[in-house]
Batch of 3 targets.
Target 1
Amino acid sequence: MTQVPSPQLTLPDGVELVPGRGGLPAVRIDLPGCTGEVYLQGAHVTSWRPAGGDVLWVSEAAVFRTGKAIRGGVPICFPWFAGGVDGTSTPAHGFARITEWNLVGATVDDRSVELKLALTDTVDTRAMWPHSFAAEYGVRMGRDELCLTLAVTNTGDEAFTFEEALHSYFAVRDIRQVRVEGLEGASYLNTVPGEDAGPHVQDDPIGFTGETDRTYQGTTATAVIRDGDRTVTVARDGSASAVVWNPWVAKSAAMSDFGDDEWTGMLCVETANAKADAVTLEPGAEHTMTARITEVDHGQEALIGSS
Ligand code: BG6
C-alpha cells in the first residue's frame, strides 16, 4: 500500500512529493542552498547536493522497486544490523529500509528543510520482530549540513533490544587515495570473510587497499573522510558504533545492483549501534541517534574565490 502524507500536511515551497524512479514516491527538495531527494520506502535519503556534486553516492545499477533496498544514499538499518546479533535474522539489515514510512512533517526556513518520517509496528513487522515500537526520522538538509536523527520508542510493555545504522554511502573520487581519520585508538571487528575477525585496534587513519568491512565499537568519535581537497565529516550522537565498508573488486562484481567498477567511487561510513553496542529500551523509553554530515570542498572554494 502506498502511504501518502497525512491530509493535514501541507508541503512548503521547495518540497514536493513526486513519483521517483520506478514510480516509488519520493520527496524532492529544491532550496536556494541545496537540493535533495528522500524516498518514502525506507525513509531513504538518496541525494544531498549542497553546492557542487552529490555528497551521497547511489549506484548506477541501483534497483528502485517496492521491497528492494536501494543501493546507495542512506539506508536505515533497523531493528537489526546485517543478520542481527546472532547472524540469523532476515531480511538483512532489518525491515526498516524496505518498508514505506509515513511523511508526517515538512518545514522550511531560509536555510534548510526538515522532514519528519514515521514508522510503527504492524502485523507484518511483528511477524519478523515481535515488538511494539514507534520510530521517527528527522531529515534536515541545507547548504551547510545534512542532519539525520532516528528516534526509537518502545511502545510495548516489555523491554526490547535493537541494532540500528544510518548506512550512509558517500561519493569519493578514488577510494585508494582516501583516508578516514578520527577512529584511531578504537577497537573494531573485521567482518571480511576469511580474515581475522579480531577485535583489532585501529592504529592509524584508515587507508583502503582491499575489501574493508569493519565495525568500530564503543566509540563516539567523529569520522573525517579526506578525499583529495574535499573533507566529509560524520559527527555522531547516541551512536557507539561506526561501520566502514568498501566492497572492492570481487564483492562488487558479485552484487547485481552494484556496478563492477563503481567501488572506486564510494565509501560507507555508518552511524550505528551494532553488535555489543545494541540498545535495550524499557517500555516507554526512547533512544535517539544522530548523524551530522558536512562537506568542505577546498577545490570548489578556490574556484568560487577566483571567479
Ligand atoms: C555493510 C556491511 O554495512 O553493508 C557489509 O558491513 C554489507 O557486510 C554491506 O555487505 C551491504 O549490505 P547489503 O545488505 O545492503 O548488501
Target 2
Amino acid sequence: MATERTLSIIKPDATKRNLTGKINAKFEEAGLRIVAQKRIQLSKAQAGAFYAVHKERPFYDELCEFMASAPVVVQVLEGDNAIAKNREVMGATNPADADAGTIRAEFAESVGENSVHGSDAPDTAKEEISFFFSGLEIVG
Ligand code: CMP
C-alpha cells in the first residue's frame, strides 16, 4: 500500500463547536497521522481561491462566506491510502447519506456546513497541500 498525504480542513461549524479534538481522534483511530496542522482565519477571497473549481456552482458564494465565517484548522494527514481512507472517515458530503460512525454522520449540520473537507485525488491533494503549507511545515 502506498503512503500518501492528503489535505484536510476542519470547517467553521466544527471549530465553533470545539470539535477539533474529537475529529482529530477519528483520524488517528483510523491510522492517519497529522503531520502538519494550523488554525487560521480565511478571508472570503482566500476561500474563493481554494474552492475555485466550484466557481460556477450555485452554492459557491454561500460556501466561500461560510468558510470565512470563523477559523478553520488546515491539516496534512499521512498514511497508507490516506486520500481514500480520509474520505471513508469523513463520510458522504451530505450528512444525511453518511455512514454511521463517520465524522459527517456524527458532527455535520448540513451539506454546506459539513464539518470537514478532504482532497479527492492525488493531484488535487498535492495542489491543496501546497495552497496552505510549505515543505518545511510538514513533518512526517
Ligand atoms: P467539500 O468536500 O469541502 O467540497 C465542496 C463543498 O461544497 C462541499 O464539501 C460542501 O460543503 C459544499 N457543497 C456541496 N454541495 C452543496 C450544496 N448543495 N449547498 C451548499 N454547499 C454545498
Target 3
Amino acid sequence: MVAQPERNLILLGGPGAGKGTQSQRLAVRFGIPQISTGDMLRAARREGTPLGKEADKYMAAGQLVPDSVVIGLVEERLKAADTKPGFILDGFPRTVPQADALSAVLKKLGRGPLRVIEVAVAESVLHERLGGRISCPKCGASYHVKFTPPKVADTCDTCGTKGLITRADDKPEAISQRLREYADKTAPLIDYYTKAGLLKRIDGVGDLEIVLGRVVQALDG
Ligand code: AP5
C-alpha cells in the first residue's frame, strides 16, 4: 500500500469565517484531528484550570490570549500520535510569533510541510454569522439560528446534547474587538504564508458542502 502524505493544514480566516465548521468536516473526510485552540481554551476555562482562568480574562473581552500560553498548548498537542497522518489547525496561528513558533515545532518534530487555506468572508457577513451563532456546550459544534440550524431545535446534531448556548464573546462589543484583533494581528499571516508559497484562498460564502468542496479542491488542485 502506498503511504499517504501528511496533511498538515491551517484554516485561516476572520472570526466566524467558518473555520470550525469546515475543520470538523475535513477531520471526518481525511481522518485527521481538528486542533482548535479556541476549543482547548474553552475546555480549560470550563475545568477551571489556572490556564483557563488566565485565558478567560482575554477571551471574554475578545482579545487574543498571550502567545506563550497558546504556543505551549499546540506544541504539546502536536506531539500526540493521532496527529502523525496530519492535523487541521483551527484558530492557530493567529500572530506572526505563533506562526514562527509553529514552524520551529514542526521542524523539531520532523513533520512534513504545511498547507494554508484562507477562508475569505466579508466583515458584514462575519457580524451576521457571529450574531446568530449557537454552540454545543459539550462538543463545541457550531450552528446558526438562521443559516445552519440543528436538525432538532436546541439539540446538538453531533452529540445529542440539549441546551445550545451563545458564546460570551459573541456579544456585539466583543465581536467588534475580535474583528479588530484579526485585522491587526492575524491578517498579516495572509502575506506571511503567501510569500512562503503555502496559501490558497477560497470563497467562504455559500452552502456548507459547497464551501467544503472548495477547500478540498484547493488542497487537491
Ligand atoms: P476561536 O474559538 O478560535 O474563535 P474565532 O477565530 O473568533 O473563530 P470562531 O470560532 O468565532 O469562528 P469560526 O471561523 O470557527 O466560525 P464557525 O465555524 O463557528 O477563539 C476564541 C477566543 O480564544 C479568541 O478570541 C482568543 O481570545 C482565544 N484564542 C483562540 N486561539 C487563539 C490563539 N491562537 N492565540 C490567541 N488567542 C486565541 O462559524 C460561525 C457561524 O457561522 C456559525 O454559526 C456557523 O454555523 C455559521 N456558518 C459557518 N459557515 C457558514 C456558511 N458557509 N454559511 C452560513 N453560515 C455559516
